[in-house]
Amino acid sequence: MKELRKVIYFISFPLSFIGFIFPIYASSIGANIIQIAYLYSIFSIISIIIRPMVGNLIDKRGRRIGILIGTILYTIVNIFFILAKDFKYLLIGRIIQSLGASFLWISVDTFISDISDETNRGKNFGLLNQFMAKGEWVGSIIGFTILYNNFTDNPFKLIFTIFLITSSISVYYTIKKVPETINLKKEYKAGNIKDKKQLKYFLGIMGILSFITSLTAPIYLIYLQENITKDIGLISFLFIPASILALFLPNIFGSFSDKYGREKIVIAGMFINAILQIFIPFNKEYYSFMILYTLISIVVMFYSPAFSSLIIDFVGENKRGRSYGLYSFASGIGGAIGYMAGSYIYENIGNDILFYTKGILLVVMTLFICYLYIKNIRMNRKMEITRIEQ
User: Of 304, 286, 354, nearest to 37 (Cα)?
Assistant: First the structure.
């Protein structure tokens, strides 16, 4: 993992800042809410198309080439954001960003799969999240410092120029430091999906979960402006406690998932997250929302490494496999629909109802997953008893 540290650290500088400021940036050059949702949806659609090709490439040419292409594409994205004058520039930039994300993160995930086994996979995914969090933290400090101190008449141009430099550093470290891991594993462990029925359940659950979690993505910042504070500087401070905790908690929580069982941690984490989502509309006072958002972030940090590891447990370690391809397709479609549905609900039905909907749907899905988990345990026990009796 140490070989990836600087690559992930430097390439992550723009991620949180762009994720946070993108709706405002898009709006500032004339994009409306539906167009912003379209920019989010196109990201998922491109990922669906490109990921199978990425899988084939990194299996034939290696993980290192996928990471290199990903970092180069992420670097190019900053150029389009520097030059952006209208919606078309953002659209092209978003398409390139989706291509870069597909190449980079599927290659990084496969790299981690190559160097991991069941005993340390959660810990390694936790380390990945931690590397990202450190880069995102520094990048956000740089971005918001420039944005709110009037260093230039065009702060976004300066910010993305700096991100262009840090992304280029990531490309350099990819070339110089990242080893090839394709030959570390001669055989991949098969996933837990044994038949079409299990595959159907799995794909349905992943698609619906992706749909639910994507509902609030395009409008989150707009919601904060309309309900918490219009001051972007104050909004940025809302995320500081969670960002600090993200510097060290993911590694700790990743170890928990390896030790205590991924399924239990995912179910518990998702359920708590669902309940907290429902409470968002009740916490429109600045500091109460900060506390609630921090709690949500801690919970997500708690189960995210376990969730990432669990996906590999189900689809298998070979990311070229049919199960993983179908998983990517299901989650991508769910995300694309979720972005559009969330924006429509927010604009035409109500902003609070969107968070109620997200929370309630998450509760229902968590209970359903819990039911399947308990059913599977009972089935395995019966099979074990039958085997012993024979």
Answer: 354
DSSP 281: G
Among candidate residues 276, 284, 325, the one with its CA nearest the CA of residue 300:
276
279 in helix, strand or coil? Answer: coil
Q: Round to whole Å and give the CA distance between 80 and 157.
A: 10
Summarised one tens digit per residue, pLDDT across range 83-94 is 878 788 888 998
DSSP state, residue 285 = S
Report yes or no: 144 and 17 within 8 Å, Cβ to Cβ: yes
Which tens digit of pLDDT belongs to each residue from 312-348? 777 665 554 455 557 777 888 888 888 889 888 988 8
Backbone angles phi, psi at 43, to 5 degrees: -60, -45
Question: Could you tell me the sign of the dihedral formed by the alpha carbons of 42, 45, 46, 51, in that order?
Answer: positive
Please state, in angstroms and rounded to a whole number, the distance separating the CA atoms of residues 111 and 184: 10
Domains located in the chain, CATH noted: 2-182+189-389 (1.20.1250.20)
